[in-house]
Amino acid sequence: MSVVAPRGFRAAGIAAGLKVSGKPDLALVVNDGPEQTAAAVFTRNKVKAAPVLWSQQVLTTGTLRAVVLNSGGANACTGPEGFQTAHATAEKAAEVLGVGAIDVAICSTGLIGAQLPRDVLLAGVEKAAASLDASPESGLAAATAIMTTDTVAKQAVAVREGWSVGGITKGAGMIAPSMATMLSVLTTDAAVSAETLDSALRAAVRVSFDRLDVDGSMSTNDTVIAMASGASGAAPSVAELTVAFTEVAKSLAAQMQADAEGVTKRATIRVTGAASEDDAVTVARTVARDSLVKTALFGSDPNWGRIAAAAGYAEAELDPDSLDITINGVLLCRGGVAAGDRSLADLSGEDVLVEVALGIGGGEAEILTTDLSHAYVEENSAYSS
Amino acid sequence: MSVVAPRGFRAAGIAAGLKVSGKPDLALVVNDGPEQTAAAVFTRNKVKAAPVLWSQQVLTTGTLRAVVLNSGGANACTGPEGFQTAHATAEKAAEVLGVGAIDVAICSTGLIGAQLPRDVLLAGVEKAAASLDASPESGLAAATAIMTTDTVAKQAVAVREGWSVGGITKGAGMIAPSMATMLSVLTTDAAVSAETLDSALRAAVRVSFDRLDVDGSMSTNDTVIAMASGASGAAPSVAELTVAFTEVAKSLAAQMQADAEGVTKRATIRVTGAASEDDAVTVARTVARDSLVKTALFGSDPNWGRIAAAAGYAEAELDPDSLDITINGVLLCRGGVAAGDRSLADLSGEDVLVEVALGIGGGEAEILTTDLSHAYVEENSAYSS
Predict the structure, then answer these.
(1) Range of the domain at B14
(2) What does the CA dihedral B212, B216, B219, B222 come to, rounded to 10 degrees?
(3) Pick from A239, A227, A241: which is nearest to A35 by CA?
(4) Residue A177 confidence (pLDDT)
C-alpha cells in the first residue's frame, strides 16, 4: 500500500545493479493525476547532492509527475558530471512516461563522492517503468528499493473519508537520521492547491522528521516530496491535510527510530515548562545528542546528572534550581538536586522516557532518539559505508 | 615539577578516601607569595557545581592563597548542602593555612548528583596540608590526585629567563573533555597584575583547552585557575605571559587528547581559507564532533564525503565548489569533487591530519579531536561512572 494507497498513483521498485549486493536499488513513484500538485522539503546542507540541485529546480513549478529514487550511491560531491547524471535520469523517466524532464524529481542515497554508473541507472529507469502498477506490492517494492542500512521497509497510510495519505521513507543513521540521508515520498489523492500542500507538508515535517533527533545535522541528500493527484475529488482543508500528513510522517519517523543503526534503546526526550516551544526543542535536542547521555542509555544507567549537565549547556533559558528530571516515571532530580534512589528507575527495557521539567513557562516538545551502542560504532566504522 | 616549578608554590596530593578504590583523590596547591594574584575561567554551563559557585565568588577579589581539588565526586546538583560542603572545605583549608576562606578556591570532579562526605573531605584537607612541599614529587602527586578516568597524570612547564609557568590538568572525555570535567591549575612566579594574569589566561585558554574538540559542551564543573606569586621578581609583558601560558596549556590539551576516553586515533582538524577565524573554528568543530566522521576515523576509513557533509552543515560561510579536503597529505576532494583514489590516504597510524580548505578568505584554525571507538562506548556505558 503506502504511496499507492491514495488513488492516482503507481509505483515500482527493482534491482538496477547499482548495489554490489544485487539487492533492489531503484524506485519510481508516478502521479497519474488528474492533478499533479507537488511540494518538497530539502536538506539545508550547503553541500547539496546533484539530485537535490535538480529537484529544487523542478519543484519551483509546484507540479510533478514522477520521482525516481535510487540507493547505491548519493551522487553528491560529483560536480557537473553528477548533475548531468541526475538530468539524464529525469530525461529518461520523462521519455518512458511521455512527460517532460521538468516533471521528474530525483532522489539518491549512498556513498558520497562517487559517480553513479549512468548507463546502469538509465536502464534501471526503463525496467522500473515497465513494472509500474498500483498494487500494494508495488508500494512495498518502492520502499524496499530505497533501503540502505535500513533492515525493514518503512511505509504508512492515513485513511480519511473519501481520501487518504500514504508514505514511504528510508533512513537509518542514529545520531541524526538526516545525516545518513533521509528520503521520503508522501502521496495523497486529495484535491489541493500547491500552497495548501506545501503548508501541510512543512507543518508535518516540523513535528515529525525534524523531531527525530536533530535537524541541524543534515546530509547532502535529505529530501521529502509530497504529491497530490486530486483523484479522490475530496478537498480537505489545510488543517485536515496537515493532520493526515503528520500522522503518516510521525509513523514513518517512529519506524526510523526503531530501525536506527545499532539501536538497542528507543528514547523519548520530553521537555516541559520551557520558556517557549523553541527552547523546549533546543533542550530536548541537546540532551538527545549528548554522547554521554547516549552511552548511559546503552548501559541502562539512570545517570540523570549527565542529563542535567546537557540541559545546562543547551542554549535555552534554564533555572538550575527548578530543574526536575524523571526517567521511566521515577523522579530522580527535583529542583536540581537528587530526589531519591536512582536505582529505582528501571532502564532494562527497550523504551526509555526521559522527562525534563524546566519550571519556567509553558513550552514543551518531544525528541525521539536512540542510544549509542557498540553496534553503531561497528556499523559506521566499516570502510566507506 | 609542574605547578611547583615556579617559585613560591607548594603542592600535595593524597588519598582522602573519597574514591572507593582508595586511590589519591585530594590535591592542594598553595601560593606562598609574596603576591597572591589570581584569575580563572569557569564553565558556562547554567547548571554549575557548588565548588564553581563558591570559587566564582572567591575569584572576584583577583587574589587567591590556595586551591583544593578533589576527585571522587563533582558536588554538582547538590543544593544548599553541597554549597555548605564547598564552603566548609575552604574554611578548613583557610584554618590550617592561617588565611581566610575567601582566599581558597575549590574544584571538584566525579559523579554528578551525590553529596560528598564532608568529614572525609575535611580530614583530607588537613592530611594534604601536612604533606605540602615544593618538591617535584608534590606537583606529580597533585596531578595524580585529580585524575578520574585519566590513565596518566598531566603536567607541563614553560621556563623563561628568570621566571616560569607550570600547570596540571585532568580530563578524559572524548567528545568534549569539558563534559567529563576539565580541571586545571596554572602557576607562575612572574610579578603581574590581576588584569595581566586574566588577559593572558583567557588568551591561552581560547587557543588551547577551547580548541580541544568543543567548548559549547561544558560540564557542570570545568575550571581553570591561574595563580601568580611574584616570587621571581620578573615582570613579563602580557604578551610574554600569554605565550608562556599558551605553551603550557597547549601541552596539557595535547596530553588530554592523547589520553581521551577510548581513543585509538588522535586527529587534528585544520581548516584554512575560511571567511574568518570564527568560521574556521566552527567548521573544524562541526567536523570534529560528527559521529559519522569519528567512527570513520576509528575504522581508518578516508571517507571524505562525511567530512564534506559535516562542513556543509556547519553554520559558516562555505562554497561547495571551492571545497578541498586532504587527509594525511593526500588530496581526496578538490573543488567539491573526488580528486583521486581515496585508498591512497593511509589512516592506519594513530595520528590523522584532516585539512579542509574552504577557498573563501584567510581565516584558519585547528581543533584537536579523537575517534569514536568501542572502548569509548564501553567506558561511558558503565553504570554511573
Answers:
(1) 2-258
(2) 60
(3) A227
(4) 41
